[in-house]
Amino acid sequence: MPSASRLTGVQAVLFDSGGVLVQPLGGRWNPRADFEPTVLAHSPGITDEQFAEAVAAGDRFLDAATGTPPYDDYHRILLGRLGIEATPGLLAELSREVDPATVLEPFPDALPTLGELGRRGVRMAVVSDAWPELPALHDRLGLGGYFEAYAISAVLGCNKPDPRMYRHASDALGLAPAQCLFVDDDPELVAAAIALGYAGRAVCRPEVAAGVAAVGVPSIGSLTELLDLF
Fold first, then answer.
1. Cβ neighbour number for residue 226 with a 10 Å cutoff
2. Domain's final residue, options 97, 129, 147
């Protein structure tokens, strides 16, 4: 359901991060792309099949969590599945700070869109199911300086579509829900925002086009289409 009509009264955009602003190199968010080589340096005999089973166990752990769990707890699940002791040293290696360019990158349309929205006076915030380090990560990826506020699940203790996630961002901007546009790659979360009184657009990148159509929320094909709304 593409929509390019201008929005009336909307002054801000609330962005999801992963899948909207940034994407993982190699296509996988968790665990980080350096997980396998780090583990193999400690236990060289781990097979691709074992890694796949561990990643699946980690996905189930994250899906069952009511919030965003500590990253060390997530890594303990994976290591336990691999039969590897989760020593403090290994956990520290898996969570060590790395150059974000080695594991993540902004979508090509992200920086141009953020820059132009900023030039037009559109205010911006982030609403993301993520760990507390997200603002620092954005800084290292060149996305810093655009966002006035962050609503982060690991900080707030809840995940989208909990209304507190959306409202934390709009309240931080001093705006009513109807004055904010929420943008996410998950159409269900966009539908939840619309039900709370926000404007909403689902980013309809090719791999999620069917899901957007099924939910029936307004969509955009790329972030640059946001510029048509302001």
1. 23
2. 97
Q: Is residue 73 included in any domain, yes or no?
A: yes
Q: CB count, 10 Å around CB of 119?
A: 8
The boundaries of the domain holding residue 156 are 12-25+102-229
211 pLDDT band, cuts 50/70/90, is low
This prediction has a pTM of: 0.75
pLDDT of residue 208: 46
Q: What is the pLDDT of residues 80-89, one digit of tens each?
A: 999 999 999 9
Distance of alpha carbon 166 from alpha carbon 129, whole angstroms: 11
If one counts every other C-beta atom within 10 angstroms of the C-beta of residue 82, the result is 18
User: What integer pLDDT is reported at residue 207 of this predicted model?
Assistant: 55
- Report yes or no: 133 and 150 within 8 Å, Cβ to Cβ: no
Residue 207 lies in a domain: yes
Could you tell me which residue, 209 or 54, shows the higher pLDDT?
A: 54
Are 133 and 51 in a shared domain? no
Gap between the Cα atoms of 125 and 189, Å rounded: 16
Rg (CA), the chain: 19
